[in-house]
Amino acid sequence: MEKARKTVTSFEQFIKEHKDEITAIQILYSKPYKARLRFEDIKALSDVIEKPPYLWRVDRLWDAYAALERSKVRGASGQRILTDLVSLIRFAIRHDELEPFSEHVHERFDKWIIRQESAGKKFAPEQIRWLEMIRDHIVANLSIEKDDFNYVPFAQEGGIGKAYQLFGEQLWPLLDEMNEALAA
């Protein structure tokens, strides 16, 4: 427990000390967000904290919080993905609830779909499947951009051409809206 406490205390001190210097922390500290968080920002932060003198990995930070604040931590310990660093920073700042980034995005996706349907928008099953692939891409990469359709799984399913066929001119505003709604 003492090791977990030291890890958490030093991580939270690091966040406070670098909130004006490291882009990812600046964005997560600002409410409302002044800029969209990019995967490159989280990767850069990860590169800093995984090296001496810190040697913090996402899974170890997660386990430290779980040991100290079990009632506020959702999701089993074990393998964490890099985007879980977003959840860790949010928790270090606000101490509300620590949940895997994937759960955060899935919950927001479900709410987004409900809002779309409430507004009269109906998605065909194939569109839903593509929206779910987009959601899963956001889980792993924090956002989706036009170029991402050149890669798996989108390229295997017809890439940007198929996405455009399914969503038409609404594809670009849809991607912007999903980036905003799911990763915020």
Please mark out the parts with pLDDT under 50 across 5 or more consecutive residues, or reply none: none
* Major pleated sheet: none
The total strand number stands at 0
What's the domain count?
Answer: 2
Radius of gyration: 18 Å
Count the helices. How many?
Answer: 9
Question: H/E series, N to C?
Answer: HHHHHHHHH
**Distance N terminus to C terminus?**
32 Å
Report on this model:
With 184 residues, this protein is an all-alpha fold. Helix content is 61%, strand content 0%. The chain has helices at residues 2-17, 23-29, 39-49, 58-68, 84-94, 101-118, 125-141, 159-167, 171-183.
Highlighted features:
184 residues, mainly alpha, 2 domains
List the helices and strands and how they pair.
Blueprint: H1 2-17, H2 23-29, H3 39-49, H4 58-68, H5 84-94, H6 101-118, H7 125-141, H8 159-167, H9 171-183
